[in-house]
Every structure is written in structure tokens, then in C-alpha cells.
Amino acid sequence: MQQDLYTILESSVAEYNRPEFIAADPISIPHRFSKKQDREIMGFWAAMLAWGQRKTIINKANELAELMDGSPHDFILNHQEEDRRRFLDFKHRTFQATDTLYFLEFFQQYYQQHESLEDAFVQHHSPTALNTEAALVGFQRLFFDHPDAPERTRKHIPTPLRGSTCKRLNMFLRWMVRKDDQGVDFGIWNRISPSQLLIPLDVHVDRVARRFNLLTRKQTDWQAVLELTEALRVFDPNDPVKYDFALFGIGVLQ
């Protein structure tokens, strides 16, 4: 039975981990850019906006990129406070102007001191850690380590400490860390191993994982993320999150 499931998962990864699927996925946003920091900024923002219809997510992320003059890193580094007025009308579902302005504030302060967003995660991460849980906890604390951090924005940057699945953060890390020869994920970060990544658990992945008996926990929460990722490690301990392509593809596209 497990061998049959392995065959299904591997064939689905081969089917869905392909450049042809980039255009209809939010990962198409950072694929617009070649500069590392542009990919980080727009990848992070696209991932954080990734709930609802994928077409709408892509449109809203493209709108953000245009508001940053098509050069996110340059804009982040050099814009003045008055330049933020153009963002006051930007919103996506519960992501409102207050959240947008704080993201801009965080990014500007951060990139004026750091070359890569990778530093924000790895300063809380160990090369010998089983997974990225500590990196996610530390990043969330860093993101809101500002006296003017709005309380309402915290719901957009989750933490495992609150039991969240952290689906969007795990998806962003997949984009930045995973390395393969298909050209979908970027693999531009080197201080987190693909073996340490955790599955981005959304409703589609959750449903298919339960159908395959890879997930038995009743709640869809942080512990479910750990349980499912451990189940996937059995099939590929070096790159368990590649099966995100399989589970999401089966759940959404089949």
C-alpha cells in the first residue's frame, strides 16, 4: 500500500512541479523579477496575500508591484514617507491600508540593514534543527519588534506558538529554499535545508492527505503540519515538501 502511495505521489509531483503551472499560481509574481531582493519582497508579499482565488491574488500582487514602480527593492530602500500615500487604497480581503503601511515600514528598516530576508529567518534557526519551527517563531517576533506595530496586522504573520498552520509562511520558505531542476521554486537561500521545510497545509492539501491516511489529527493546526510533514519524510527525507505539488495538484486540479 505504501509503495502504491509513493508511486502516486511521485507521479503527481512530476505532473505538477512544472513551469507550465507557474502562470496560474502566486509564485508567478516573484518569477517576474531576476533580482534576489525583488524576488524576496514580492514573493513574501504574494505569499502573505495568498488566500482566496488565485487569479485575484496574482492581480493584487501585481498591483503592489506597480505601486512600487516595478522595482520593489529599490522602492523599499529609497522611498519617502509621502510616497506611501499611493498605497492607502490598496486592500485584499482583510489586508487593509494599515497592514500595507506597516509592511513597507518593516521592509524599509530591514533592508537598510540587511542584504537578504534570509537573515530574518536564519538568525533563529539551527542547521541541525529538524524543521523551521524556531525560524518561524523568531521571524514573527522580529517582524513585530517595533513600537508602532499595529495589533491588527499580527493576523497576517502567524506563529506556531498560536497553533497556526503558518501555511503562507511555509509556502514562502518553499519558494525560497527548495532546489530542483524544474525551475518552479527558486532555491536562492542556502542556510535552510530543503529537508527542514514544513508542508504548506491548506484545505486542499489537508483533504487529500486525509484521503491518503497521511494525516489523522482531527484539527488542522500546527501539530497537523508536523504530523503530515513527518509522514512525507518517509517517502523523501531530503525533500518532503516537494509533495506539496502532488497534494495540492490532486486537490485542486484533478
Runs in which pLDDT lies below 50 for 5 or more consecutive residues are none
Class inferred from helices and paired strands:
mainly alpha
Average per-residue pLDDT, rounded, comes to 96
What order do the SSEs take from the amino end to the carboxyl end, as H and E?
A: HHHHHHHHHHH
Report the total helices: 11
User: What's the total count of β strands?
Assistant: 0
Molecular structure report:
By secondary structure, the chain is mostly helical. Helix content is 48%, strand content 0%. The chain contains 11 helices and no strands. Helix 9 (203-211) packs across helix 11 (243-253).
In short:
Helix content is 48%, strand content 0%. It is mainly α.
List keywords for this structure.
mainly alpha, single chain, 48% helix, 11 helices, 254 residues, 0% strand
